[in-house]
Each structure stands twice: as C-alpha cells, then as structure tokens.
Design brief:
The chain is of the alpha/beta class. It has three domains: 100-161, no CATH class; 171-421, Rossmann fold, CATH 3.40.50; 428-488, no CATH class. Helices cover 23% and strands 20% of the residues. The protein has 14 helices and 20 strands. It has a nine-stranded mixed sheet, with helices on both faces. Strands 17-18-19 form a three-stranded antiparallel sheet, with no helix packed on it. It has a two-stranded antiparallel ribbon with strand order 1-2. A hairpin with a 5-residue loop joins strand 13 and strand 14 (412-422). The relative contact order is 0.11. Residues 1-43, 52-71 are annotated as: Disordered.
Length: 511
C-alpha cells in the first residue's frame, strides 16, 4: 500500500522572531508579499484597486465601469428575503406561523385562522407609543384580518413569548491575520460569521461589492427594526516584511473601506490574529517568524491614520488574538487606550496569556456579539452573563476589556476591566495555587490559604504547604485593584469576578 501523503501543519502558538523594521526585507523576484515561505502566492480577496488608488482614499474603485461583468443587484442576487421582511425570535417567519401550541389540543394547524406572536403584534401597532397596560393582544385572526375573540392563548413562559424585539443593522466582520497562519486560528472568526449570517439578509465579500457595485436595499418603512440586513465579510492576510507586502496590504484595506462605505455599514467587528515572540512579546508581522515588532508599531501599520479616522464615527469592536507570550507592554497598553479615547474603537478585548488558544475563545466572542449586536444589550452587562457558563475559559486566560462610558457630566471617558475566574481552592482571589513544593517535593500540597495584612499594611495571600513535616509558605502580594475580589465559590465550576484595571507590571504577570 502506498504511503499516505501528509501535510505538515504549524500548530505552535508562538515562535521566536527577530525584531526588525516593517518593510525592510528586499523584494525578491517571483516571491511577493503574499508568498508563504516562497511556495505559493496568496490569493487576494479583491484586486480591483491599483497602486495609485491605494494612495488616494477618495478614489473609489467602484466608480469604474466594467463592461465585461453582468450587473448584479443585492436584493435580486444576494438577499435571501424581500426588503420589508421582519425577523422575529418568536415566530422566525416574518410575523406569521402556521402552527401553534395549545395547552389542550397540543399542535394545531388551523386553515381558518392565522396566529401572530405578541412582540410582532405589539410592533405592528405603533409599539413605542402604546403602554403595555393599554395593549390588547388578540393573537388569532380570521381570513379577513379581523381578530377572533373567543380563542384564548395561554402564555405560560414569559421568556419565550414576550421579549425585547431584535434590532438588526448592517454589519461587517473582518479578520486581519498574519500570512501562513494555521486554520484553527480562524475558528472564532468563522463561527462569528456563521452566527451573524443567520440574522443577515445575505452575505457578501469585498470583491462582490466592488465588482458589482452593490448597494444595501432601502426599506419603504424605516420604522421596521427587525428587517434582515446585509453582512459583509473579509479576511485579509498580511506580510509586512517587504515594501510590496506593505503596499499590497494598503490596497486591500482601501478596498475594504470602499466596500463598507458602498453598503452603508456603520458597525464593524475586527479580529487581529498573529503570533508573538516568547522572549520580547513582539508581534509577528510576517509568516514563519520572519520578523516581529512591538505591539504599538504593528497596530499602527495595520490601522493607518486614514483607517482610524474612517472608523471614528462607526460602532467598532476589536478582538486581539495573539498566540505565544503576552504581547502587551506599558507602551502597547497606552497605544490601545488611545484607540479607545479617540473613539477609533469603542471596545477592545485582550487575552494576554501565554500560549493562547483562540479556539477556547469562540463561545465567549460569538455569544457576546450575539447579545450586543443583535439584541442590543449593554456590553458591560452582558460580559458577566456570557462568562457565567465558561469556567474552562477561565482556566485558560483572563480577559481585559477597554471601553468607553459617560461620566456624571455626560463626557466620554475610557475605562478598563479585568475579568478573572476564581475558585476557593484552585484559584483563590484569582491567584493560581502553587502546584509543587520544592522543599518536600509534594504536588498539590498547598491546601492552606488565607488573606492577610502584610508588614506594609497591604493585603497578601499566603499559601501554606501541608506536606509531611513541611512548613513552606508562598506569599503573593495583591495590588490595590485586586482588593475587591473575594476568595471564590466552593463549587468546582467556580465563578468569574471583575475589577478595575490599572497598568501594573506585577498584575500583568498574573494574567
């Protein structure tokens, strides 16, 4: 039997890379910036922008005439629903359902009537101006549209029969990833796209929007918030080691901006995926560990001044998924804070842990986006709700959230919250219990733990070894930001806690 051919896949979460200036590697004939280790050229998402237009942001490539391509229309060729379709979590089929559940006769499919769920009926009657106490719910209607008064519907579960209506808006989901990255690092982006597509009227790419000059359809009634809207997706691989690679990435970002503008999208989610050097924490900006630089340098290259200014009026989210060492430094943290205070990104999520596995973050990211983008729940309120069932994620990483909120004077101010998983014995006060005692050579022997006041008046957590004839103790000082944390629940599933984050090298070492 012939030997099965296998392909070697890079599964490492980080590797050493020399610190070097972006675009400093000479261009090699036949090997462009899209080459992955010189073997094959990377296929672009779209190549309709020339080098000249990459320098001119106002030069929209969609204005060019294309006589060879048959003109396509979004509503006709890409949308799954008519423009006035209403999407409802109660009935899922534009306000009407052919089957209802009765407490007596179970499932019935009456041909002589139609049923409208409570939220759909409420919204169809000028919902915002009608108080719930004045709203008369009929539910069943005859073929002429008149309510049937003698048919009663028992509402037994409020959670599934009366809820906050969805508000669907146009959305773009973009992943910026270092070229040659393993496919498993794309899972959070792919799942986020799949979940968002369930709410979308259609899914389009940058090349489709620019190639066919697509535009989002306008609805006749602007007061219908549940109409499915377009979803634009884009995945851009970057190799910034050469000048050609920098220019190529710039062209793709110009294309992205033009496509989002063309579709009238104001909500954008970005994923930035890369590796980091295990010693310096520098971000890889080229495949195969060819080069790395500090986080703030790479982020400035990924988000140019033209891009950040373009993002300012939009609702934006940034998830940084960096495998390897902890990439955040004091300068990098201040740079990301500037993104928030300047309103380039309203929310930034960091997962600064060693050997991060983006797969572990999939449930958190996708569920959070579902609550925030489609149900319009406050992001600060929904983070603890989403994390409640994700104890496994808590063992893998802590979470840092940078966001904006208004103060007592109505001014926008930035804030940072750290989310940490705690458990009474395994991670008391958010600290990992020592796994090994070097004095008595015993594993998992630090079962005694308490929080004390140190000689300087600051709080410390002391772990005591319970090994045979061993009195070893490990003392960990707490930062002032960690004082509000409690020890944690006894249950094995533990619980998440949150505290304000201020830059502290000692605290960062415990991420």
């Amino acid at each position: 039997m012939p030997r099965k051919r296998t392909r070697k896949i890079d599964k490492t979460t980080g590797a050493s890379a020399p610190r070097m200036a972006l675009g400093s590697v000479p261009n090699t004939s036949g090997v462009g910036s899209g080459d992955e280790n010189g073997r094959r050229k990377r296929k672009l998402d779209v190549t309709v922008v020339t080098h000249k237009s990459a320098l001119d942001v106002n030069n929209d490539p969609s204005d060019a005439d294309d006589d060879e391509t048959e003109p396509l229309d979004y509503s006709t060729h890409f949308s799954k629903f008519p423009p006035d379709t209403q999407w409802c979590r109660g009935c899922n089929d534009s306000s009407e359902t052919p089957k209802v559940t009765c407490d007596d006769c179970k499932h019935i499919s009456p041909n002589w009537s139609r049923f409208i769920c409570p939220p759909c009926e409420h919204s169809s009657k000028g919902a915002p101006d009608i108080k719930l106490s004045e709203f008369v719910y009929h539910g069943f209607y005859d073929s002429n549209g008149a309510p049937i008064p003698k048919v009663l519907l028992e509402i037994r579960n409020r959670q599934f029969t009366w809820f906050k209506p969805l508000k669907l808006e146009r959305l773009a989901i973009v992943q910026l990833q270092v070229a040659g990255i393993a496919q498993d690092l794309e899972i959070p982006y792919q799942i986020a796209v799949l979940k968002a597509s369930a709410y979308a009227s259609g899914v389009v790419s940058v090349s489709e929007v620019l190639g066919h000059q697509l535009r989002s359809p306008e609805t006749d009634n602007p007061d219908l918030p549940c109409c499915p809207q377009p979803l634009l997706i884009s995945k851009i691989a970057f190799d910034l080691a050469t000048e050609d690679g920098v220019s190529e990435y710039g062209r793709e970002m110009v294309n992205l901006r033009h496509a989002i503008n063309s579709m009238g999208i104001t909500r954008v989610v970005f994923f930035v995926v890369s590796h980091s050097d295990p010693e310096t924490g520098d971000l890889h900006f080229a495949p195969g560990g060819a080069g790395a630089e500090r986080l703030e340098i790479v982020m400035k290259a990924l988000f140019s001044p033209a891009t950040t200014e373009w993002l300012r009026p939009k609702e934006t989210y940034l998830f940084t998924l960096v495998c390897g060492s902890k990439p955040i430094t004091a300068d990098g943290y201040r740079h990301l804070q500037t993104y928030v205070t300047s309103r380039f990104f309203e929310n930034i999520f960091l997962f600064p842990t060693n050997n991060l596995q983006p797969l572990e973050l999939t449930s958190f990211i996708t569920n959070l986006l579902d609550h925030v983008l489609f149900r319009h729940e406050p992001i600060g309120t929904m983070i603890p709700v989403v994390l409640k069932e994700l104890s496994t994620l808590g063992l893998h990483t802590r979470i840092l959230h940078l966001g904006l909120r208004t103060d007592s004077r109505g001014r926008w101010i930035s804030y940072a919250d750290r989310y940490v998983w705690t458990q009474r014995t395994r991670r008391p006060w958010g600290l990992d219990a020592p796994a090994f005692c070097p004095q008595c050579n015993t594993i998992k022997s630090f079962r005694g733990v308490e929080r004390l006041e140190g000689p300087d008046g600051k709080l410390v957590v002391q772990f005591k070894c319970h090994g045979a004839n061993c009195r070893a103790a490990v003392t960990v000082p707490l930062t002032s930001a960690e004082y509000k944390l409690v020890r944690g629940p006894r249950e094995p599933c533990g619980g998440w806690q949150q505290h304000d984050f201020q830059w502290n090298e000692e605290l960062l070492g415990r991420f």
